[in-house]
Amino acid sequence: MSEILRERQGQVHRKGEAPFQLDCEKPSAAGSVSQRACVFCGSRVVLYPIADALHIVHGPIGCASYTWDIRGALSSGPQIHRLSFSTDMQEIDVVHGGEKKLKAALCELIDAHHPKAAFVYATCIVGVIGDDVDAVCRQVSAEKGIPVLAVHSEGFKGTKKDGYRAACDALYKLVGTGDTSKVSPVSINILGDFNLAGEIWMIKDYYRRMGIEVVSCVTGDGRVDEIRRAHGAALNVVQCSGSMTHLAERLEERYGTPSLRVSYFGIEDMSEALYDVARFFKSDEIMRRAQVLVREELARILPQLARYRKALVGKRAAIYVGGAFKAFSLVRALRHLGMKTVMVGSQTGNKKDYELLRELCDEGTIIVDDSNPLELASFLSEKHVDLFIGGVKERPIAYKLGIGFCDHNHERKEALAGFEGMLNFAREVYGTVASPVWKLTGTERARALEAGA
Amino acid sequence: MSANPAGTNLATTNPAAESTHSPNWVSTRNPCKLCSPLGAALVMRGIEGALPFLHGSQGCATYMRRYIISHFREPMDIAASGFSEASTIFGGGPNLRQGLTNVTEQYKPSLIGIATTCLTETIGEDLGMMLKEYLATEEGKSAPELVHVSTPSYSGTHMDGFHAAVRAVVEQLAEPGAAATVYRSGFVNVFPGMVSAADLRYLKEVLRDFDLRLTLFPDYSETLDAPVLDRYSKIPAGGTPIQSLRATPSAVASVEFGRTMLRKQTAASHLESAFGVPAHRMGMPVGIRESDAFFQSLEKISGRPTPMLHAAERGRLVDAYVDGHKYVFGKRAIVFGDEDLVIGLASFLAEIGISPVLCASGGKSGCFAEAIAEVTAGCPDEVIARDGLDFMSMGELARGLAPDFMIGSSKGAPLARELGVPLIRVGFPVHDRFGGQRVLHLGYRGAQYLFDLVVNTLLERKQNSSPIGYSYL
């Protein structure tokens, strides 16, 4: 297909057409309008929800402006994370170095906001002009008596995944510095949920009902002191494995804490997550509570889901998300609603992820790594899609073609995790697909659908 | 009155206001500005068949796309050369060449508009030279038109990037004598600055009604506010035709908005000094007075009186001002955002009897305070004008000012909430409300829209805060 650049041909696969082989984990092709961001973005999304920490971007203003309060990551208390702080480097700082400015900025902001810790994000040019951000962080930490952590997130130093790593490295430095004497042996850390629209509160409540203590949430509704005690938990439960596996691995290596990979999206994955955690603790009581919980929740939502399913059965969906693990859950959740996934892709999946996706999907499904608007648009048209699921950059592609869209990214304000989230998801999918506006759009697509394409 | 030569936070129309000077913060806290390549990317989107391209890290393009999409709700493709560690050390030439070749193959643009970023400026990439080298290669032979602009993010704001791009494109494409192929009769260049899609459409209508042909640049009125499509178009239809941009030196005049631009080297000043195209430079036509200046210029250029339709709109507007004056008189507003829009809005508010008690911008052209003083002359209340300001400093100043409302972009929403006053959303970005691209700010028609909006906002506030909730006001 002409929309796919030569150097990207290996990153697109149609299930059933050829032996499975998908290139991934490559830098984006130059000039390709990749939907990916950069190292800084990866670090920023992971650390952003820590609500009682100061987040300061060291660099020119753009990186701070574009990430100011754009996410649905909620806090039950402090809101420092929703403010945007920057050293706003000027030409003179580029010439003479920005260390002094960074130090002064950190000191005045710590004095004004009394955070429990500070994260300093080094952006592109900081790496180039050679500011010693670590040294400044050490000095300020000593002066102000709080952890001040450098996050080495220079945009050009890799992909978003490298940003996740840099964030995990910063978090790792916090863990192990708190008192764990009162932590229960039946306890976990929730890794990789960012409390979009309050999701982590639902998940925490499930664990509470099972009798499990949640020591820390990394990083949804996150608190510095909780993260400092995270090494006391018996288990790390990891969602969004792309961003958090590195931290889980380092914690296992250092503290021997095992980890479990879960997803809270969709009924199957949500239930399985609770059962997996129950199984880990080898307690009949915890398992019994998990079963009761799942039964209660399902009894509440299944009848409502069935109503949506009736309207959605046979509809065709496309998925393009950041991490592949979310894509698995979405394929399953859509299947539960009677919908068929005809295209699925991610920005940062690895070989194993794509292999799993292939197993999960039907024949003919397009599987794609690190796609771009032109490819996505052509896939949507080719597959006569009714619903596209992605983030804010994907939305206008669908809308321009007169196709329904659901936001499943960090900016959303709807809780989509957990049992309640599945119901919200079904409601949103229904509200999207069933809207009468599609009768006014895409005449060509309507004809194709009528012809049974 | 002139701006403080040191340039920091000192601009004011009244020396007494110095006492409210906020402490000088080193950090920027909740910025009231974006970085310069964003403005350049927006300009490039306003050229027909063009694709914006950033020479820098992948993230810059992605963040700016996301930001622009959140306002316009339209596809906004920006390509990037996608820097890696190796390109940062050894230079981004190979990435730039590969990127341009890929973009050419995939998008088949008629022009690629390339802007630099902080990264490429810091490592000292010579974009002009690199493009020249690229054009000499085998692949470069099939390249479309290439224009480039230097937009280091550590210098200025998105507005500086915007103006720099307008000027760079005009300078690089201008060809004396190219006019005859575009229009048979005389035409006018219009450089409106960063205005809404609705503003751009309005300007085209006004010029047409004056029987003037125009080259409006940039023109993203269609590329960023397009109809739904059956087939995805790689590059949306619309934009200033490249041929028209070549012909700018043959225009009978240039019209350029923005009081902060008056003494600067701009697209219009360049065309005047290099090709003798008379430049009509004026404030952004927001409100009656600034719009009058615009319409007078068009009368002069066209040799015709203002067409009936627009004269009638002015008449209705004055009538509305009369009908609504009691609702607005003596009210106090905080106006914030891009300097020239703030100046226009301050002028509009002052002429209807509202005091723009704090006029603030993250930009720093050096001309802000003087311009605010001019357009608010005679205002009964003290007017504070501050450039280079962020929202937290704005908040610290605002608390003592007892404002009735704020007017500016969505970024003021947290402050408005904190102050407990309504926010009237105008400018860019509007991403917590719908239809920001269709907000009309300019001319008599825009003033009518703004006036209705301001009056209704104040009435709603009065109604909601009344213990009995009038149903007739």
Describe, in plain words, how this protein is organized in 3D.
The complex is a heterodimer of chains A (453) and B (473). Chain A contains 18 helices and 14 strands. Chain A has helices at residues 39-47, 62-65, 91-96, 99-113, 124-129, 133-144, 160-174, 199-210, 224-228, 241-255, 267-281, 284-312, 324-336, 351-360, 373-382, 395-400, 418-433, 443-450; strands spanning 12-14, 53-58, 85-86, 117-122, 148-152, 187-191, 213-218, 235-238, 259-261, 316-321, 340-346, 366-369, 387-390, 404-407. A 6-stranded mixed β-sheet of chain A has the order 1-12-11-10-13-14. In chain A, strand 6, helix 8 and strand 7 form a beta-alpha-beta unit. Chain B has 473 residues and is α/β, with parallel strands linked by helices. Helices cover 42% and strands 13% of the residues of chain B. Chain B has 17 helices and 14 strands. Chain B starts with 27 loop residues before the first strand and ends in an 8-residue tail after the last helix. Chains A and B meet through helix 1, helix 2, strand 3, helix 3 and helix 4 of A and strand 1, helix 2, strand 3, helix 3 and helix 4 of B.
By secondary-structure content and strand pairing, the structural class of chain B works out as alpha/beta
CA radius of gyration of chain A: 23 Å
Shape of chain B: globular
Give the distance, in angstroms, between the N- and C-terminal Cα atoms of chain B: 41 Å
Mean pLDDT of chain B: 92
How large a portion of the residues of chain A is in β-strands, by DSSP E?
5-15%
Number of helices of chain B: 17
Alpha-carbon distance between the termini of chain A? 19 Å
Low-confidence stretches of chain A are none
Strand order of the largest sheet of chain A: 1-12-11-10-13-14
Offer a few descriptive terms.
heterodimer; A: 453 residues; alpha/beta; 6-stranded mixed sheet; 4-stranded parallel sheet; 14% strand; B: 473 residues; 17 helices; 14 strands; disordered N terminus
